[in-house]
Amino acid sequence: ARFRFINQQLYTSSSREAAQLFRSDPEAFQIYHRGFAQQVGRWPENPVHRIIRYLRRRPASLVVADFGCGDCKIASSVKNKVHSFDLVPLSPLVTVCDMAKVPLAAESVDVAVFCLALMGTNLQEILEEANRVLKLGGTLMVAEVASRFEDIRAFVNAMAQLGFKSISK
Ligand code: SAH
């Protein structure tokens, strides 16, 4: 129940409020992550494994940014240079920051990933940040549960307005 409550909070507050929540209540983060792992463990497929398979098929020279990396499954599973960002460090590979403002230079990554991490009501700001750090022609990968979207077509259209062309859905 606490996991569901925190999950709902993360999806209905801004990324700054989420950062504040975890700063003021570190236990909330532990509870959230235990609940998250349990929930994903019941699914037929964890999308992070699909993203890992995709990266392994592409050149290892590609630089990756993992927004909302959790326990850094991507960084620990591929040869690529992976910048892993989260609010709290579940692993030493994490750079702690709000994903609306990551410490990367503009046009410095080839692949940006949001795996079950497109949270926060300031989505536009977060996606603009991904756009900023991506090289021209880079790839953005988003994995989310379908119920998160009121209208997937509207989401894809909004992404186009932010400068992303849909390659596959
Ligand atoms: N991508 C990982 C974890 C998904 S859980 C995986 O698929 O296994 C969602 C993660 O996003 C959590 O670890 C949460 O702390 C993080 N997160 C949520 N809001 C964030 C924000 N504003 N900045 C950075 N990380 C955030």
Q: What is the average of the pLDDT values?
A: 94
Name the helix and strand elements from N-terminus to C-terminus, one letter apiece: HHHHEEEEHEH
**What's the number of helices?**
6
State the total count of DSSP E strands: 5
Largest sheet: 5 strands, parallel
- Beginning-to-end CA distance, first to last residue: 32 Å
What would you give as the CATH superfamily of one domain? Vaccinia Virus protein VP39
List the ions, cofactors and other small molecules found in this model: S-adenosyl-L-homocysteine
Query: What would the principal axes of the Cα set say about the shape?
Result: globular
The largest beta-sheet arranges its strands as 3-2-1-4-5
The CATH class of one domain turns out to be Alpha Beta
Structural class by sheet pairing and helices: alpha/beta
Radius of gyration: 15 Å
What is the share of helical residues? 40-55%
Q: Name the CATH architecture of one domain.
A: 3-Layer(aba) Sandwich
Q: Which regions contain 5 or more consecutive residues with pLDDT less than 50?
A: none
Our estimate of the beta-strand percent is 15-25%
Looking at CATH, which topology of one domain would you report? Rossmann fold
Please provide a written account of the structure:
This protein is α/β, with parallel strands linked by helices. It has a domain at 45-162: Rossmann fold, CATH 3.40.50. Helix content is 41%, strand content 17%. Strands 3-2-1-4-5 form a 5-stranded parallel β-sheet. Helix 1 (2-12) crosses helix 3 and helix 2 (15-24) crosses helix 3. The longest helix is centred in the first third of the chain and has 16 residues, at 26-41. The chain is globular, with a radius of gyration of 15 Å. The N and C termini lie far apart (32 Å). The mean pLDDT is 94. The protein binds S-adenosyl-L-homocysteine. S-adenosyl-L-homocysteine binds at residues 10, 15, 18-19, 36, 48, 68-70, 73, 85-87, 98-99, 115-117, 119-120.
